[in-house]
Amino acid sequence: MIQQVTRGIKISVETHFEGMFYKNYRLHFAFGYQITIENQSNDWVQLKSRFWKIKDALNDTETVSGEGVIGKKPVLKPGERHTYQSGCLLTGPFGAMSGHYNMINFTSTRNFKVKIPSFKLSAPYALN
């Protein structure tokens, strides 16, 4: 498990390989990940949006951004956590993801970024 704390918000990431399949005559590698966002600060916060950089084995980079996570903009009181699952497709057996969440602190009314630690995606058979 990969973890990082930014401004009292702890991000934990677990990944897993889901399999391979062909789409449009091209082999794809499916990966899943589970992220837990834990509010270790003394303030109420809300996740507003996300930004991802997804790199594949050939160093091709895709960026993804949007509101919330899986259709939600969770509000976290001190000590609360929010867990969600998502996934991505790569054209190779290796890759990595990193990014950040844009959040708001309700006490200070300030927006801030929470870093999502870089994590690797790898098909188990490809590890040596």
From TrEMBL:
Coiled coil: none
Any one Gene Ontology BP term: error-free translesion synthesis
Entry-linked SUPFAM superfamilies: ApaG-like
NCBIfam families: PRK05461.1 (NF003967)
Gene symbol of the encoding locus: apaG
Organism of provenance: Christiangramia crocea
Domain of life: Bacteria
Pfam families: DUF525
Domain annotation ApaG: ranges: 3-128
Protein name per the record: Co2+/Mg2+ efflux protein ApaG
